[in-house]
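Hey, weird one. I pasted the Hydroxyacylglutathione hydrolase sequence into the form twice and got a warning about non-standard characters only the second time. First submission, copied straight from the form history:
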Amino acid sequence: MHIYRLPVLSDNYVFVLHDPASNTAAVVDPAVAEPVLDKLEELGANLVAIFNTHHHGDHVGGNNALIKKFPDAIVYGGEKDRDRIPHQQVFLKGGDRVTFGDHAAEVFFVPGHTYAHIAYYFPAVGDQGGELFCGDTLFAGGCGRLFEGTPAQMLESLNQLRQLPDDTRVWCAHEYTLGNLKFALTVDGENPDLQERMVTATAMRQRGESTVPSTIGLEKRTNPFVRWDAPAIQRSAGIDIPDRVFARIRGQKDNFAG
């Protein structure tokens, strides 16, 4: 399975999955349709699936145009997003599985950013690590704002994701990394892995490179929202109760000017 990362809008990423054996494609969170259609034309591939993580417009905005062009494509989303995702046909819950070509993905229910958010995890094949498409739940160096969920829900959602193998690639839906790392340094500034990541990410962005994908292992070492139980984060929060630590640093991030 080949993964193509398409930058769209101001900071979104859309992901096109291509199965060369069948020359079929799937798309994850198509904010807009045009770049996806261009990539499909370039590949000469037939779109068979749209995998939505949640209902926000910058994740489903391309559904209508894609279905108009590929009316047989199946639209997937969370069961609690019923009537919120255009053309949704399959209503998924945590523990379900979806297939694309010869690949099968596990569905994670990861509320917090929204109450219906899901993620798709394709396990490792051979020497290639797994692939996680997590929408706006887990970001490189951060996590999504809590628009519909609670801190406890988001903490549990991120705890599920941090159990995945360290070499799992994290395909998050926005290029927010530098801002996230700037905040992370305010609560975990003595972390040498975080310091190194900031230098690396800054250089990448200066070269016009994407910082996505990340990996679960890198997030576990450097992302304060995955490290809420690390002593340094608890000291910064001034408390050691996990959901209250998480709530405090999430509130700080919401008010962080950067």
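That's the output from the first submission. The warning seems to come from a hidden character in my clipboard, not from the data itself. Residues 31 and 58 are 4 Å apart (CA to CA).
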